[in-house]
Structure prediction request, 696 residues.
Amino acid sequence: MSTRPSVLFPLFADLETLDGVGKKTSQNLAGLDIHRPRDALFVLPYAGVDRSLRMSVRDVSPPMTVTVKVRVGLHRAPTRRGGPYRVTVEDAQTTFAIVFFHARPEYVQQQLPTGQERIVSGKVELFDGVAQMVHPDHILRPEEADQIPAFEPIYPLTAGVTQRTIGRVTAGSVARVPELAEWIDPPLVAREGWPDWHDAVQAVHLPAGPDDLSPDSAARRRLAYDELLAHQTTLALARAQQRKIPGQRSEGAGILRQNVLDALDFDPTGAQRRATDEIVADMAQPFRMNRLLQGDVGSGKTLVALLALLTAVEAGGQGVLMAPTEILARQHLNGLHPLAEAAGVVLEVLTGRDKASERAAKLAALAAGDIQILVGTHAVFQRDVAFADLRLAVIDEQHRFGVAQRMELGAKGEAVDVLVMTATPIPRSLALAQHGDMDVSVLDEKPPGRQPVKTALVSVGRMDEVVESLRRAIAQGRQAYWVCPLVEESEVVDLTAAEDRFKRLRAVFGDDVVGLVHGQMAPAERDVTMGRFVAGELSLLVATTVIEVGVNVPNASIMVIERAETFGLAQLHQLRGRVGRGSAASTCLLMYQAPLTESGQRRLEVLRETEDGFRIAEEDLSLRGAGDVIGTAQSGLPRFRVADLDRQAALMDLAQRDARAFLARDPDLKTERGQAMRMLLWLMEQDKAIRLISVG
Ligand code: ADP
Ligand code: MG
Prediction:
């Protein structure tokens, strides 16, 4: 089935094929992202109006929407231009007025002929203490009363699209919904009490009352699940496709790993062991690994990466570790070099800063297989870099790399196992949405003996006190970071602020004590300053957010963040993660500009309350919404129409397990349910997935 099934044609036809929809309306509907009847099915009402028939307007408290049967009385045309056209009407108990402005008298007379009965529905208001209904929403003959739903759904609107239009478009689209075979696992449908797809679509557009508008209604949950299932099936197909790519079995006795573990002065955490086992097992499989290692700052991802790289080496191949910045690449080199040496493995670094002759020598050694582990920046993936037998690519701090780069990298080696590491704890629902095509290992445990970081909120008005306490701490041999405000998304503006702060702090503490690093600096210069801080020659490092990712200076125990309210929660968490790495008690001062907004206050308080990156991420998600937490466009995160990632993480989880388990049984979607799933993929426009099955 590589073309759309004909049963879906009516739903994918032009909007103009719907009754009462012309070119203009069709164009306007694009404002609601409705391009075909199918799209209208998933634009759901967000509210409803009670239009059940009442006896009289007398007992309601205006303003309120009321539906009543009336007998039409006298018409009174406007006495001045632009004045109201009034029609007196009488319901079962009282008399009131129906009012029109700028109406053609013939139109009103035809709608409301004196002496006849009509059902009118609209908002009743008081005008000079008298009830009146201005421009009724509905005027019908008594025998047409059933055309007004007792509970009328209210849809989101856009320019040129009224409730009446969208109501018509939706009704026409819903009428085209065919009966389709069930694609959800039947026991799940039964357990959840979900209607079938056809009935669910009908139900969401014909709500009987406010309960039916809730995202927790059975019909809406089912439609949300459909969306998530289609998405997860696509990802699961992509994953299955990946796993079909023949990979190399990389395995060995684990002697190199053991050498490293023996050389450490600490034991790996349970989580590090678990993750390593998962990775080693995956690398031993004959298909390509595509795995995410998720672990909060300081959870010890680097060690896991090294153990994985050693597995590639032990299997007779090479491994590469790519870091997003020069500083980080160098830091990895410094940290890993002694360990590699202990294992008897050759480890080298390659960055954009190697001299031509140096670079040529390294490339030759790599091609000959004499370098076994290569650490570097994205320079390691330049075209002229060739490996003798690359088996594993580890990408550190992947959120600094786009999805596209991740893909590019997979193309480098034919069958290279890929391990992506991220310290950005993202809520499970987002992780599933974003990385459902990957396998995930989680470091959910931190190395023991870490002291909690004491976090305090301080207004910038107390700058002098902060500087004074820094002075005392530095006198005691402690080191501190000072992160400057993120004024705008512009390094240049940040820089001015940072240089300014640097000068002032240097005036207080002295030249030999304070350093400055920022993104505009020449990398070599930045490394020198970083190096002096790492070596303890500098006590205070003023920085823009370049230090955000990965930097490790265990003796640094104070983090000052200026204008903390301008940073994202995840970023603040990352920054704070730079301290609390040694044995000393650490402090993080979040300096804010008063007054804080309510949500600004709440955000900073979350940080004070917890150091758990996942909890912070969940809070961030609930405070900001999914789209903002990770920029939607670049994240590859789909925009769901019905499903709500903020609230339906459990459904997403279920969808992933369902999709993966099903594909394990029916990889080509050939069974009866498999065929139904194909229909779902067509319906949900998962073209990518359809291509995957077509070629597979
Ligand atoms: P991240 O996950 O943020 O990349 P790192 O790998 O940089 O964390 O580790 C942070 C620090 O913790 C490093 O100094 C590292 O040597 C140390 N470390 C890693 N694993 C352990 C462990 N099991 N016990 C004690 N210290 C550890
Ligand atoms: Mg790291």
